[in-house]
Fold this protein.
Amino acid sequence: MPDRVHAGRAALLAVLLLAPPGAVADNQDFSQIERGRYLTIAGDCNACHTLPGSGKLLAGGRPVETPFGNLLAPNITPDLETGIGAWSDDEFVNALTKGTGRAGTRLYPAMPYTYMTKTTREDALAIRAYLKTVPAVRNPVRSNQLPFPFNIRLGLAAWDQLFFTPGTFHPDSRKSAEWNRGAYLAEGLMHCGLCHTPKNFAGGDTGRRLQGYVLQGWFAPDITSDRRRGIGGWSVEDIATYLKTGHNRVQAASGPMAEMVMDSSSKMSDADLRAIAVYLKDQPGGSDQASASQPDQALMKTGASIFVDECAACHRQNASGVPGMFPTLAGSPAVQSTDPSSLLRVILRGARSAATDAAPTAPGMPAFGWLLSDQEVAAVATYVRNAWGNAAPPVSSDDVAKARSALSRRSD
Amino acid sequence: MARKLPHKDVVVIGLGWTGSILSYELCEAGLDVVAIERGPWRDTPLDFQPYTAPDELRYRIRHELFLRPAQVSVTFRNNASQEALPVRNWGAFMLGNGAGGAGLHWNAETWRFLPSDFVLRSHLTQRYGANFLPQDMTIQDWGIKWDEIEPHYDRFEYLCGTSGTAGNVKGAVQDGGNPFEGPRSRPYPTPAQKQPFSHTLFAKAAREMGYKPFPQPSGNLSQAYTNPLGVTLAPCTFCGFCEWFGCANYSKASPQTTILPALVRKKNFEARTECEVVRINLDSSGKRATGVTYVDTSGEELEQPADLVLLCAFQLFNVQLLLLSGIGKPYDPTSGQGQIGRNFTHQTVSGGIGFFDKDKFNFNPFIASGAIGMCIDEFNGDNFDHGPLGFVGGGYLGQVQTNGRPIETTPLPPGTPAWGPQWKQALRDNYLSTVFCGAGVHASFYSYRDNYLDLDPTYKDRFGRPLVRITMDFHENELKMSAWLTDKFGEILQHMGAKQVVKQPRKGPYDVTKYQTSHLCGGAIMGDNPSNSAINKYLQSWDVPNLFVQGATAFPQNAGYNPTGTVGALAYSSAAAIRSQYLKNPGPLVHA
């Protein structure tokens, strides 16, 4: 295992040459390394820092999509030149929790230091201890691929002033220990809000926490306790099962969420997943009101026919779905979300659900983009958003045409 | 010269039902397993969608899922006086290809054989005397007893989630099930499928005639089911596109829907698809397999060394590989000596068509599944007295109409013109009101001295290897049985209220161009010693103890049921023996 030996040497060199004496970590501290590995999984660092298919764990290079352009996630292996092997522990902790680069530069908030800031120094050092043990990979990455003017980091200090509240997590003494554990993970390391909280014009979080946001061609749904658009209808058990297996009695994870479940939450402890579920169940939603607009009845009729022909075989005539396999559409937050991006995406392009050790089946939804016209997709999408007691704004052919065109430019 | 690859613990030839079961079981035992599969990888969401899977022209008529005869075929003749010719378009049976094998395109009829089927020769000899059997019939006992195989039937059913009604739980006969089945340790994992109208009507008529009808055990599931591997199947939607097709709804038990999703997660498993094994390699003693040689699509020959070789290809190709690799002694029909190629059998399938009054009966035949059906078992195996009948063997009778697909569901009364407006009108009049059941009589095919497999002296594949040659015909015993059973079936159709019954008993000679079933059996059969068999009761080769030969190849003769349940049970039995005995002490598991 030459890579691991190399990593060990790199780590040793880093400690000997660069770390201040007081901060020398015990690189045989097995429990700290194990804890760090677990936290690295919980933080899903891998999602951005490993280029899929490269076989080079955490060596960076994966494009991270932002509304302002792409960034490439850097190499965080212990390689001295191209990784973070030469960084001191303090430099690492500052990057993770304060968004400070090594030379004092500001990191782009695509690195979710805005969330990670809640992580305790002890946990941050555990992650650091683990990262020192992964194989060092020489892989130079120039992170900043943004177009002008976003490629100028000067503005980031101002951005931080406006949108970044640094500081470690403070437990809420009115809540249970379990709730606080869930909050610590969900608001911090797991950075749920990075995808699920709506952003403002500058990419900062708005106050509508966890109420859903479009990115990477998907709508990361509302995960508040809103009973229509959020997961208010799910039990604690439903949420924990979903995070553990990628499936529960009503829903299946696909897209970036499937990736998150497969790489991260499915490998977390049942106690932590339950804690996250307890915390999420306690997050207030926005307005719980159904769509005021009545969908066109002719459109609904067309949609109903398409549903019976194309959808009912799996999702069943009454939209109940099949637990663990095919999502329930009746009452589904994914179907009734204000923004229909994910619904249109799975209809047009199909999707494959998460495969996990606990639920390896990973059923898929076939693509219908080749089979249904914009009008037909609009009809069936409007129908499923407004049948069986569902209520959501109708989808127009124009919406479908735009979604189709946007998807045609995406390789994922 | 083949390029030699790094050693593996186990090499599996073929990734159908048995290859998938054995791979999973041996990965669980911690072994490093590589499966080498001739056809492509196939996966439900990528290969089978609800809008493309039900395509009769593509899959049924044009054989999309099957092995292309241009790649490998077989030759056929009825008897030794003829010259065998290559099959250029599959007819009497279909040969699966790719991950899932025949387990992907089957109908999912998941039967158990009768306890007496496993001791057939002793049983029949004891009941009717040795002289009752035809002279040239070579049936024999399997070397395994009911109690030994029952737990493995159970494992296979619980893998598949089989839907059925138990007939005998631990000796207690159950209402609504098959009262003739051997005692089972527990009920089926899921309840029987619902039955459409004609199937229900058949059961009613049978009951009125004093029979005990029961639902056919089905691998198309009545409800969602998660198996012990954690893989989930969804309920069947009765689309009627099962046999010849991949299931797009995850409703039909197949390696894809029960094992492969769990197997591909195993770090000690690897599948190499579109790679064709050309021989099993032996060491200089000829008593130990050293691995296999295969060819990939680039044409490169590769040698995969392994400690354990599992031959899991389709029956015909298991026998061909044994013959080509010089394992065991080829069967000689003149002397009756040699085991490889011996006791080759198929199935004796017949049926009948019942035409009903279209104004009174609408059967909606398109509401169906591959293993739907109401059956009776009064005339299977030795469930009835053969003494006065002058034949042995039997089968189940049932309304097992699996589909109403448009191209082939053309029930027409005798005398209808073959084309034109009258043909169209007759089809219009009869499509909905006819019981049109291809395999309503599903009966045994016992083994004979002159039905066998060997290597063809003339025809070769692209590597220059001789094709396997089938020499086979129906014998008087089977034809007599088929006529008698088909009469019984016709009586039930009549009692259902058919205005006209057309009986279609099986007639000789065996016709390789007309589909019957893909239930080819034998050729390297199991038994209790090397003088009467190629493999022992754990499917281990008597000649090469680190080789196990899986599948229906092991059947000494074929019973009156679909074979897959028994194929799965034998695979689990073999896997259990490898895990619990062979790995601790590699060598022969039976000393005869």
User: Anything to note?
Assistant: The beta strands of chain A are 63-66, 69-72, 213-215, 218-220, 351-352, 364-365. Chain A has a mean pLDDT of 90. Chain A has 17 helices and six strands. The longest helix of chain A spans residues 297-315.
